[in-house]
Design the sequence.
């Protein structure tokens, strides 16, 4: 499938990709436009995940590129970011589903799992044979997860198994996942450990969170763990502290930055289309100065954010990306996304609050991306610590 640079990629960052990468992006874009875009507004309105799209989505190889065990060809972090962008410019809920599957679930196993665990679980997740979720956030622990985890893991001295007890909240995919990565504190040592937990394990319960105004198609859940018994072989063998958890989040924060650019582009592209079709005062509103000003400001935000995402991904491939680099990208790009979707929605007037024109969905979904994977404030403090050498978290 030929790949054409998006008009919203104003400085043509996609030109840095290889032919294989561009061809893969073209296949994904064509599939999303044909099979996914027509169903996402209905799924969003009903607050239901469109499960019928999953076989075709996984057939595009969208979840295979991050790890050598599953990647069909060698690829760059910029390419993987562009994948997240393409998904998000069509629908943030579908992008979030794949971000949980590929970024958080596979990321936890890829970063913290043993060679045997990687070989067993990564191919199953990449193909969609099983669905994953990532359980870190708790009802009373979000931004302070490094210190405030209340879920415990207690070692059974007789069997060597682990017993997990606690609660998790806001866990995406968890109402239908086959496994969930659960992060818990060792009751004896206080160390943060990770576990691959099959969701049919006795004592594991997931309940859908209702009433959301953002990412409505994502199935977030409250999870209750009551003496959930997990064998030692399902403990992530290289997860021994929150530093290991943070290594996973470092990867996915940059992915959220890319997704936020995709959401901004989705809203911007909808606004450009609408401005050319909507006639007021005898001509398309695209011919009015104030509309062109709003569109120019949108494109400026998109271009600046895209440049930041490209650079932080290049740093990842070079092995020089640090926590503060991905934190700054996440904080900055989601803030610019929030401005951009508001300006884009403004162009629609009253039509901007109905799903028919897509922009209302992007406008609402931006709020979730702005908050998850570390709030703007927490990421600002990570950057502030790098600037000053002083930690100001509490």
Sequence:
């Amino acid at each position: 499938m030929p790949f054409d640079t998006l008009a919203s990629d104003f400085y043509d960052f996609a030109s840095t990709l290889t032919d294989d990468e561009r061809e893969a992006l073209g296949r994904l874009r064509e599939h999303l436009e044909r099979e996914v875009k027509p169903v996402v507004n209905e799924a969003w309105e009903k607050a239901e995940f469109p499960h019928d799209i999953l076989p075709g989505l996984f057939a595009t190889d969208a979840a295979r590129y991050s790890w050598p065990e599953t990647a069909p060809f060698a690829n760059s972090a910029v390419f993987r970011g562009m994948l997240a962008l393409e998904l998000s410019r069509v629908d943030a809920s579908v992008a979030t589903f794949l971000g949980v599957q590929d970024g958080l679930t596979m990321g936890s196993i890829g970063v913290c799992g043993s060679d045997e665990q990687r070989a067993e679980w990564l191919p199953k997740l990449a193909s969609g044979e099983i669905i994953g979720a990532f359980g870190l956030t708790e009802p009373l622990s979000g931004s302070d997860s490094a210190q405030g985890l209340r879920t415990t893991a207690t070692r059974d001295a007789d069997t060597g198994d682990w017993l997990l007890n606690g609660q998790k909240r806001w866990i995406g995919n968890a109402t239908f996942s086959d496994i969930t990565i659960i992060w818990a504190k060792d009751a004896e040592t206080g160390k943060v450990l990770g576990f691959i937990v099959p969701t049919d394990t006795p004592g594991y319960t997931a309940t859908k969170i209702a009433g959301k105004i953002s990412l409505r198609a994502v199935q977030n859940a409250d999870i209750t763990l009551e003496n959930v018994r997990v064998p030692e072989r399902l403990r992530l063998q290289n997860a021994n502290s929150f530093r290991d958890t943070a290594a996973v989040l470092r990867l996915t924060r940059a992915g959220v930055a890319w997704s936020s650019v995709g959401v901004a582009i989705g809203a911007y592209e909808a606004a450009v289309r609408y401005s050319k079709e909507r006639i007021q005062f005898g001509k398309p509103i695209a011919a009015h100065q104030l509309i062109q000003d709003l569109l120019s400001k949108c494109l400026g935000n998109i271009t600046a954010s895209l440049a930041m995402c490209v650079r932080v991904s290049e740093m990842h491939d070079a092995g020089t990306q640090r926590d503060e680099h991905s934190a700054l990208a996440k904080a900055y790009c989601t803030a610019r996304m929030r401005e951009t979707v508001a300006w884009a929605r403004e162009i629609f007037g009253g039509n901007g609050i109905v799903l028919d024109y897509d922009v209302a969905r992007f406008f609402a979904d931006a709020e979730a991306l702005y908050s998850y994977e570390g709030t703007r404030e927490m990421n600002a403090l990570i950057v502030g610590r790098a600037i000053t050498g002083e930690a100001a978290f509490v």
User: Anything to note?
Assistant: The beta strands are 132-135, 152-155, 162-172, 179-186, 192-198, 204-208, 220-230, 279-280, 283-284.
